[in-house]
Amino acid sequence: MEHTQKITCPSCRQAEIIYDTYALLQGVKFACPKCNAQIGLAQESIHQVQTTMSKFDQLKSGAKR
Q1: Which structural domain range is residue 52 located in?
Q2: Residues 6+ apart with CB under 8 A from 56
Q3: Does residue 20 belong to any structural domain of this protein?
Q4: What is the pTM of this model?
Q5: Which of 4, 9, 13, 39 could form a disulfide with 32 if both were Cys (CB 3.0 to 4.6 A apart)?
Q6: How far is Cα 11 from Cα 37, in angstroms, rounded to an integer?
Q7: Number of domains forming the structure of the chain
Q8: Among candidate residues 23, 20, 21, 27, the one with its CA nearest the CA of residue 43
Q9: Are 49 and 41 in contact (CB under 8 A)?
């Protein structure tokens, strides 16, 4: 299953940054193709995002039944 998303660059607002939610959880940062600004998760947010993603995956699995 693909977990890519996109967000408008918070710096230049002229391009979209494509990122993978599970790679973010691993500490990967993603760069804007236009201005090279980077997005990533703060270390203190990783646990909360992991918990939320796990719950979301459980909901999706239940909906597919």
Answers
A1: 4-59
A2: none
A3: yes
A4: 0.74
A5: 9
A6: 7
A7: 1
A8: 27
A9: yes
Q: Is residue 64 part of a domain?
A: no
Cβ neighbours of 13 (radius 10 Å): 10
Q: Supply 20's token pair.
A: 């993978």
Residue 18 corresponds to which amino acid? I
Mean pLDDT of 46-55: 91
Instruction: Tell me which of 46 and 2 has the higher pLDDT.
Output: 46
pLDDT at 9 over 90: yes
16-42: pLDDT as tens digits: 999 998 899 899 999 999 999 999 999
Is 24 a member of any domain?
A: yes
Q: For tokens 């270390």, name the residue.
A: 43
pLDDT tier at 65 (50, 70, 90 boundaries)?
Answer: low
Structure tokens at 35: 């201005």
